[in-house]
Amino acid sequence: MKIYFSGAIRGGRQDAQLYQEIIAHLKNYGEVLTEHIGQMDLQEDNLSDVQIHDQDMAWLTASDVIIADVTVPSLGVGYEIGRGLEMKKPIYCFYRGEKTSAMISGCQDFKTFKYETLEEVKGLIDGVFESMG
Amino acid sequence: MKIYFSGAIRGGRQDAQLYQEIIAHLKNYGEVLTEHIGQMDLQEDNLSDVQIHDQDMAWLTASDVIIADVTVPSLGVGYEIGRGLEMKKPIYCFYRGEKTSAMISGCQDFKTFKYETLEEVKGLIDGVFESMG
């Protein structure tokens, strides 16, 4: 199982530690293609924007499932969900707080879950992968 | 010409006044389907998230061109660009500041322009519509 994890990068790195924990948990279910998103000291200086975009799109295309944290507003996360949806990828979104974008929570082509704690999101992820059999 | 203007809503309303000015300028070139995005007092309480999503997707599908302000991180704007791209819509993105998401500036399927002032973005928009001629 190839898993594409999507989380905010330039828009906000405040959740990088949490992403790292989510990614560590996702590894119980397969290979996480975007493991770098959990790196606290993510360096992208040696890659051009085109290289970053094209690499992420190659991973998105190769993935079997997309797991997105949609807590922090992010152009990149929204873009990846939009493109993944048109590619017919299974998508599961997770967010903390009162609400996320209506474009995410209002889309009936994938499921969006609310969570509060790391333990809670890990449990929700377990449910998702168990339901995928 | 049907124009879909995309700007941040739940992620940030600080640019609503600017969006209003951009939308007013876009009206020189056609009908702006998403004129409400420039409303300072945008009320979405009487619509469900599903209604908001489905209405915006209907407008996106009906549009001839997508004009997006990608200054403020936004899941909705990223999602609309991702879906619009897969629908083969012409897309033009504009941002202020140092940089925008690599998923936007690194995508070679549409053009992204940097601007500083309202006058500058109006001039860039003029150039876009003149080139579409």
TrEMBL record, chains A, B:
<dbReference type="GO" id="GO:0009159">
    <property type="term" value="P:deoxyribonucleoside monophosphate catabolic process"/>
</dbReference>
<feature type="binding site" description="in other chain">
    <location>
        <position position="19"/>
    </location>
    <ligand>
        <name>substrate</name>
    </ligand>
</feature>
<dbReference type="Pfam" id="PF05014">
    <property type="entry name" value="Nuc_deoxyrib_tr"/>
</dbReference>
<keyword id="KW-0378">Hydrolase</keyword>
<comment type="subunit">
    <text>Monomer and homodimer.</text>
</comment>
<dbReference type="InterPro" id="IPR028607">
    <property type="entry name" value="DNPH1"/>
</dbReference>
<keyword id="KW-0326">Glycosidase</keyword>
<keyword id="KW-0546">Nucleotide metabolism</keyword>
<dbReference type="GO" id="GO:0070694">
    <property type="term" value="F:5-hydroxymethyl-dUMP N-hydrolase activity"/>
</dbReference>
<protein>
    <recommendedName>
        <fullName>Putative 2'-deoxynucleoside 5'-phosphate N-hydrolase 1</fullName>
        <ecNumber>3.2.2.-</ecNumber>
    </recommendedName>
</protein>
<dbReference type="GO" id="GO:0009117">
    <property type="term" value="P:nucleotide metabolic process"/>
</dbReference>
<dbReference type="GO" id="GO:0009116">
    <property type="term" value="P:nucleoside metabolic process"/>
</dbReference>
<dbReference type="GO" id="GO:0016740">
    <property type="term" value="F:transferase activity"/>
</dbReference>
<feature type="binding site">
    <location>
        <begin position="101"/>
        <end position="103"/>
    </location>
    <ligand>
        <name>substrate</name>
    </ligand>
</feature>
<comment type="function">
    <text>Catalyzes the cleavage of the N-glycosidic bond of deoxyribonucleoside 5'-monophosphates to yield deoxyribose 5-phosphate and a purine or pyrimidine base.</text>
</comment>
<comment type="similarity">
    <text>Belongs to the 2'-deoxynucleoside 5'-phosphate N-hydrolase 1 family.</text>
</comment>
<feature type="binding site" description="in other chain">
    <location>
        <position position="80"/>
    </location>
    <ligand>
        <name>substrate</name>
    </ligand>
</feature>
<dbReference type="InterPro" id="IPR007710">
    <property type="entry name" value="Nucleoside_deoxyribTrfase"/>
</dbReference>
<dbReference type="InterPro" id="IPR051239">
    <property type="entry name" value="2'-dNMP_N-hydrolase"/>
</dbReference>
